[in-house]
Amino acid sequence: MPETEKEITTTISPKTAFKLIEEHQDDSNLVILDIRPHNEFEMEHIHGAINLDYEGHEFRKKVEKYDKTKHYIIYCRSGVRGEYFMGIMNELGIHQFYNILGDFVGWKVSKLPLDIS
Questions:
Q1: Among 46, 57, 60, 61, whose CB has the most other CB atoms within 10 angstroms?
Q2: Could you give all domains of the chain from N- to C-terminal order, each with its CATH number?
Q3: Closest CA to 75 of 117, 14, 116
Q4: Residue 104 and residue 34 in contact, taking contact as beta carbons nearer than 8 Å
């Protein structure tokens, strides 16, 4: 991850995301956000992800509480919510995030490891 606080808003491949997660697994400055509904998250998700249910109540207020200095990897199921969420993050001053290409579907197609309940 870059040392500077510059803006990072990019889409990365699932394999690049996996490598980034592996390299920074003990780094609290990298946060993985799963914005799928809670029931989907409970069935399976990327290891270490935090569920921020996009369709939950007061979504914007939840996002406002996130640390603007951290780096985020975000994903939804297939990309629709992710695009909207990236806009909200930018509006709220969170400019250091990566979106996974293909989102959760892309992760699974790439056969990368998951936490399965």
A1: 46
A2: 8-116 (3.40.250.10)
A3: 14
A4: yes
- Of 103, 55, 112, the C-alpha closest to 83 is 103
The neighbour count for residue 20, using CB atoms within 10 Å, is: 18
Q: Are strands 50-51 and 71-75 parallel, antiparallel or unpaired?
A: unpaired
Burial class (CB in 10 A: 0-12, 13-18, 19+), 85: buried
Q: What is the pLDDT along the chain (117 residues), one digit of tens a residue?
A: 544 456 667 899 999 999 999 999 889 999 999 999 999 999 999 999 999 987 766 778 888 899 999 999 999 998 888 888 888 888 888 889 999 999 999 999 999 999 875
Tokens 């640390």 locate to: 67
